[in-house]
Amino acid sequence: MPVTTVDDSLAAQVKTLLTAPRPWTIVPVGSPVLRRPAARYEGQLPDDLLAELLDAMRAHLPGVGVGLAAPQVGIPLAMAVIDDPARIAPELAAARERPPQAPLDLVNPSVTPLGDETVAFYEGCLSVDGLTAVVARHRRVRLTAADRSGRTYALELSGWPARIAQHEADHLDGILYLDRAEPRSISTTAAYGQYWSDPTPARAATALGFPA
């Protein structure tokens, strides 16, 4: 990727973030940084600081989530991380096509649908605490991104890994999953756990009155 002059102000912001208590407080819905397209990464951070930021973002995920975009921690750059060990019941993993997804750095990612098929499942977001909703997403996508060293890679993803990639790429465009959700499916996480934690949202669709 092209290298520009290091942005001292942005580097200072990242250094402050890295010294903040862990786990981080995630930027909540309603914050402007989540609604602005992230700036393309073009070398605004020193290489070692970029690596430290991405490692810290990954370290935030275990037990909390499967993806995190830089704007969710207040950094307005087009980068995200993914890591999904998929430690869920086998019947859920099969229904949701959710194999383990190895850790990935997504720097300046682009996600392109492969085919027209979509699948709908409940999603959540670290920036939208306490809610979940059904979102239809492309079943197969091509992910193109750079890693922390600037090497470009491309992957074809399907099922849940494709969903995660689409969710994180949306963040970098200022889009939240609620923007794409079936409004009648919106549920608190407590109500979801009580009523709708089936492998698919079919029963919820019938009961709540949204397209299956």
From TrEMBL:
It holds the Pfam family Pep_deformylase. The active site is at residue 168. It is an enzyme of class 3 (hydrolase). Its cofactor is Fe(2+). Fe cation binds at residues 125, 167, 171. It comes from the Bacteria. Keywords: Hydrolase, Iron, Metal-binding, Protein biosynthesis. Its EC number is 3.5.1.88. GO terms for biological process: translation. InterPro entries: Peptide_deformylase, Peptide_deformylase_sf. One of its GO terms (molecular function) is metal ion binding. Binds 1 Fe(2+) ion. Removes the formyl group from the N-terminal Met of newly synthesized proteins. Requires at least a dipeptide for an efficient rate of reaction. N-terminal L-methionine is a prerequisite for activity but the enzyme has broad specificity at other positions. PANTHER family: PEPTIDE DEFORMYLASE, PEPTIDE DEFORMYLASE, MITOCHONDRIAL. This is Peptide deformylase. It comes from Cryptosporangium phraense. The gene is def.
